[in-house]
Structures are given as structure tokens and as C-alpha cells.
Amino acid sequence: MSGARKWLGSEIDVFPLYFGTGDGAPSLFFRPFKAVARLAARLIKVKPKGASHGNVSDRPPAPLYSLLFAIWAIAVALDKKHKLATAQRAIARGFVVIADRYPQDENSRFNDGPLLHRLTWVPGWLRQLEMSVYSAARCAAPDLIIKLRVGPDAVAKREPDMRHDVILQRVAWFDDLTFHGASVVTIDGARPLPEVTQIARRAIWAVL
Predict the structure, then answer these.
(1) How far is it, in rounded angstroms, from Cα 48 to Cα 56?
(2) What is the SS3 assignment for 104?
(3) CA distance 78 to 186
(4) Beta bridge partners of 96
(5) CATH code where residue 82 lies
(6) Residues in contact with 177: Cβ distance below 8 Å, sequence separation at least 6, in sequence order
(7) Residues contacting residue 151 through CB under 8 Å, at least 6 positions apart
(8) What is the number of structural domains in the chain?
């Protein structure tokens, strides 16, 4: 995202946003939740059934884990809601918004999808609150989605803690994501970086 921002920034007004929960810079609102999540991840040695990273058991989530996960899911949703509103304000002011990752409800099992479906005890109104955020993202679909596709080996190097069967499944799911009919350009991440950059720039210019 930083490369695209620098490239476009010399020509037009660019507004960058990070919708993920990983290594990108968190918002002020989300920062304390992310810090607590990192601490909990270090303290919880064995993850419950359904987790994708680390040592995973076949047991369902315990009550404390479920409570922490529910708080995390709502914090994630509210953070995305705030960023969606921020993106719309930036667009109204004439900015080109470049987002790293984007919320989707097409496949809730991975890749910035809703989370509360993993818990059985969550009340319906809380599920509706979470889903309303992802529905809003679908209604405000981006003009362009660039999917950088990499193989399982590359994912394993980046996510050494992720189980291999989960990696294989997510690669397959990633290929199937259409973002509800948005304009999608898929780029092979194994190609040389200059080629990847050139393809991405051409796709961006085509929608400006």
C-alpha cells in the first residue's frame, strides 16, 4: 500500500487506510484491544477448536476465551465501521482511498470476515450489530480490488504458526472471493516485483 500511495501521491490526493488486524498500524481506538490480544495469545498456550494458529486442541472455546473473543470481534467490527465512514468522508472530499485489506461477508471463515458466528452463546442483537458493518462494506464496494495471490509455501513462510491444512483451505477460498461482483484483478505474487507493480498500476489507472 505504501508503494501505491507514494506513486499516486505525486499526482493526486491519496488517503490510506488499513482495515486489517495484523502488522499494520492500528487506530487509536483499536490499539488497546490489539495489545490485550497479543498478551492473551502469549498466555494461552493451547488454542480451542477452530483456531488457525499455534497448538490447537479439539475442545470448544472455554468461557473466558469465548468472552475475550466476543469482545475482540465487536472491537474489530466497530473499528472497521469507523474506517468505512472515514473512507466515505475522504471520497466526498475528492481523495482516492487506498485500503490495505477490505471487510467482506462473502466467506465468514477467513480474510477480514465476521467473527461472532464461531460462538454459540452470542445474543442475536450483537450478531446483527457485527453483520451490519460487513453489510455496509458490501454496499460501499471499492471501485477496484487487487488480489495478490501467493502459493501455500509463501503463506507458510509468512505465517509459520498457521496449520498447513488451514493454509491450503484459505488459499482455495481466496481464489473464490469475488467481493460480490466488484472489479477484481488477481496478480500472481510469484512474478517479479516490477511486473507485479506494473500490472497493479495499470489496473489502478484504468479506474481513475
Answers:
(1) 6
(2) coil
(3) 29
(4) 14
(5) 3.40.50.300
(6) 104, 106, 107, 111, 147, 184
(7) 171, 190
(8) 1
b (16+ CB within 10 A) / e for 177-190: bebeeeeebebeee
Nearest to 50 by CA among 65, 35, 37: 65
The 10s digit of each residue's pLDDT in 150-204 is 999 988 888 888 888 888 988 898 988 888 888 999 999 989 999 999 999 999 9
Q: Collapse the DSSP code of 148 into the 3-class scheme (helix H, G, I; strand E, B; otherwise coil) and give the result.
A: strand
Residue 86 belongs to what domain range? 2-207
pLDDT (tens digit, 9 = 90+) per residue, 128-152? 999 999 999 998 889 999 999 999 9
pTM: 0.84
